[in-house]
């Protein structure tokens, strides 16, 4: 998780409390957490940014000054990049510089790919992106997962890192919004990665799924293998479009978004519907009946489950990661 010094002021490393914000396409959600031995939810609100902050503050009985922002939908482009490096001297112990070089290559590759994809989506060839989130998923030596590769020996060093990028123009707008709310940014994170970690339920490396996060105006389509987000695509249709005739358009859009994921040999057969529009009448049944296997490769007919018990309120995970506290639940 990241602070963004280019756009935001530096803030305390560990505030006593913070407010987590999700600027959705139709409304803002706010959650106030305390930072003690645990990360506890104290209050929440929804509405315009001002209304959400005021409602959450009234519920908690105080107003925090430090904010955590979750970025999702079209403003956060997520992917997992894996790079393998053939070591010239397999008998030499791996040093920090070797790890840093591998990571730098991954971050460069991820930025190039995200810039290409987001520039095409927004129709802006001059688009500038900034890294907002990253997570090392694993290191491997000769195909074996290693907790710490430093000091180890081997022929092939491999790393897999999740990254999320956001347009610099959006981050500038976000900075202005926070100033109007009299809030300082403590950290930002990808809402999709928070969602994946929550759904994985402590089995991140064993988690494989297609996630359809249905917002008011945008559906976030993600493909996840082994806890790593292969990629995300924003579908500019959400719950507002899910009328009797609009469902077919939404289903077709989901199919098109999935088809845009290059390099997927077989899609996960588990589909999770979540977000505010996930409980739309008969959406699960319509998705099950839609012939996705007609054009997309699945090992078996996909199964659909609805999960509306997860969402931005789990942004407490940001604090857990920043503080490195295994008991921050």
Give structural notes.
Among the domains are: 79-162, Dna Ligase, domain 1; 200-307, ATPase, nucleotide binding domain (Nucleotidyltransferase, domain 5, 2-Layer Sandwich). The chain contains 7 helices and 14 strands. The chain has 329 residues and is of the alpha/beta class. The longest helix is centred in the first third of the chain and has 27 residues, at 96-122. It is 28% helix and 32% strand. Strands 3-2-1-4-9 form a 5-stranded mixed sheet. It has a 5-stranded mixed sheet with strand order 12-11-10-13-14, with helices on both faces.
- How many helix segments? 7
Q: Report the sheet-strand fraction.
A: 25-35%
What is the strand arrangement across the widest sheet? 3-2-1-4-9
Instruction: Tell me the CATH superfamily of one domain.
Output: ATPase, nucleotide binding domain
Low-confidence stretches: 1-11, 325-329
Radius of gyration equals 20 Å
Number of strands: 14
Helix content: 25-40%
| Termini Cα gap | 17 Å
Class of one domain in CATH? Alpha Beta
What overall form do the CA principal axes indicate? globular
Question: What is the string of SSEs from the N terminus onward?
Answer: EEEHEEHEEEHEHEEEHEHEH
Q: Please state the structural category.
A: alpha/beta
**Major beta sheet, specifics?**
5 strands, mixed
CATH topology of one domain: Nucleotidyltransferase, domain 5
The CATH architecture assignment of one domain turns out to be 2-Layer Sandwich
Mean pLDDT: 88
């Amino acid at each position: 998780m990241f602070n963004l010094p280019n756009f935001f002021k530096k803030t305390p490393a560990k505030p006593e409390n913070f407010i987590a914000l999700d600027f959705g396409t139709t409304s803002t959600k706010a959650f106030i957490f305390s930072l003690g031995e645990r990360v506890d939810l104290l209050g929440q609100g929804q509405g315009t940014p001002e209304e959400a902050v005021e409602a959450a503050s009234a519920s908690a009985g105080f107003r925090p000054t430090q904010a955590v922002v979750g970025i999702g939908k079209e403003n956060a482009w997520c992917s997992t990049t894996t790079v393998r490096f053939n070591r010239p001297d397999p008998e030499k112990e791996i040093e920090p510089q070797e790890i840093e070089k591998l990571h730098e290559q991954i971050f460069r590759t991820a930025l190039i790919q995200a810039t290409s994809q987001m520039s095409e989506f927004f129709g802006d060839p001059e688009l500038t992106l900034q890294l907002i989130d990253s997570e090392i998923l694993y290191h491997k030596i000769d195909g074996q997962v290693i907790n710490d590769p430093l000091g180890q020996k081997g022929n092939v060093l491999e790393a897999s890192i999740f990254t999320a990028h956001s347009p610099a123009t959006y981050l500038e707008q976000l900075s202005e919004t926070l100033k109007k709310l009299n809030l300082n940014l403590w950290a930002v994170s990808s809402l999709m990665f928070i969602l994946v970690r929550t759904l994985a339920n402590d089995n991140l490396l064993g988690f494989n799924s297609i996630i359809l996060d249905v917002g008011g105006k945008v559906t976030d389509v993600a493909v996840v293998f082994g806890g790593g987000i292969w990629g995300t695509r924003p579908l500019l249709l959400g719950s507002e479009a899910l009328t009797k005739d609009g469902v077919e358009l939404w289903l077709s859009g989901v199919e098109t978004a999935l088809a845009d994921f290059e390099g997927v040999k077989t899609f996960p057969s588990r589909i999770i519907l979540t977000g505010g529009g996930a409980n739309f009448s008969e959406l699960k049944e319509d998705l099950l009946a839609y012939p996705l296997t007609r054009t997309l490769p699945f090992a078996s007919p996909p199964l659909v489950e609805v999960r509306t018990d997860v969402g931005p309120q789990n942004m407490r995970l940001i604090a857990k990661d920043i503080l490195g506290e295994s008991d921050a639940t």
